[in-house]
Amino acid sequence: MEDAIRSEAHDGYRVITINRPEKMNAMDRATCLALIAAIDAAEADADCRALLLTGTGRAFCAGADLSGRVNGERPKGDAGNSIEETWNPLARRLSNLRMPSVSAVNGVAAGAGSSIALGCDIVLAGRSAYFLQAFSKIGLIPDCGGTFLLPRLVGEGRARALAMLAERVPAEQALAWGMIYQMHEDAALLDEAHKMAARLAGMAGHALVLIRKSLRASAHNDYNTQLDLERDYQGEASRTPDHKEGVAAFLEKRAPKFSGKQA
User: Fold this and answer.
1) What is the CATH number for 239?
2) Count of domains for the chain
3) Model confidence, pTM
4) Does residue 219 share a domain with residue 152?
5) What gap in Å lies between CA 54 and CA 61, rounded to an integer?
6) Which of these, 117, 123, 111, 124, lies nearest to 168 by C-alpha position?
7) Are 127 and 107 in contact (CB under 8 A)?
8) Are 157 and 237 contained in the same domain?
9) How far apart are CA 206 and CA 11, in angstroms?
10) Three-state SS string across 182-223, please?
11) pLDDT of 147-203, one tens digit each?
12) pLDDT at 71 over 50
């Protein structure tokens, strides 16, 4: 049996692929933990400066694999215990990556799969892809960060309706609503995602992480607090080798050669 999670090193970035096409890339506990381990390995690789996440076959990820929960069977404890062991650590890994991330949504992104896709910094989707908050169909609520991400992307009114009604959001609609960054024809999606990951890998990586942190903080900061945060993060960014290289390249009218190093 092939690995449920594949990780491939490219020049400056890694591609992590959820590889359970027979399950529409739905993830059981072992697969989720394997995905976390693959992300941790990318973090530990000094040569990795961006992450690309995608799925095999017709799906990005159909969420949690429920196939073992038949005839009234349930995992030990309640769903909250499972979330604390799997989905929450995964969401936190994506949210706190030391590098930018891209998701290439090649098909259905349902349940936690939608949260994983939307949890990446830049979301690209194929024309046939769609997003589905499927939780209410089995009497649950969105998890893996879904209740945080969705209202910030599409507004509380749409988020509430999507989570309650469990309606599909096709890629074209997701683009119009600002849920994703770009939509591509299915055959071109992965090539475009590789280009995006390579582009991010060649940029000033720590500045990109500080941009992510700044934008996220703005959701709950007041104006003056955000100005203070911008001051602090700008000071931090200005002390990196990449800032010095960027200024030098600008003055010398050449392309910068960023290292991605924090110090």
Assistant:
1) 1.10.12
2) 2
3) 0.93
4) no
5) 8
6) 111
7) no
8) no
9) 18
10) EEECHHHHHHHHHHHHHHHHCCCHHHHHHHHHHHHHCCCCCH
11) 999 999 999 999 999 999 999 999 999 999 999 999 999 999 999 999 999 999 999
12) no
Sign of CA dihedral 79, 84, 85, 86: positive
Contact 16, 5 (CB under 8 A): yes
Cα–Cα distance measured from residue 92 to residue 84, given in angstroms and rounded to the nearest whole number: 11
> Which residue is listed with tokens 């582009």?
199
Within its chain, how far is the Cα of 60 from the centroid? 12
Q: Which domain holds residue 38?
A: 5-201
Distances, alpha carbon 134 to alpha carbons 38, 108, 130, in Å: 26, 11, 12
DSSP string for 101-140: EEEEE-SEEETHHHHHHHTSSEEEEETT-EEE--GGGGT-
The pLDDT assigned to 98 comes to 96
Q: Between residues 202 and 74, which one has the greater pLDDT? A: 202
Map tokens 């990005």 to a residue. Answer: 60
Give the Cα separation of 73 and 83 in Å (integer).
17
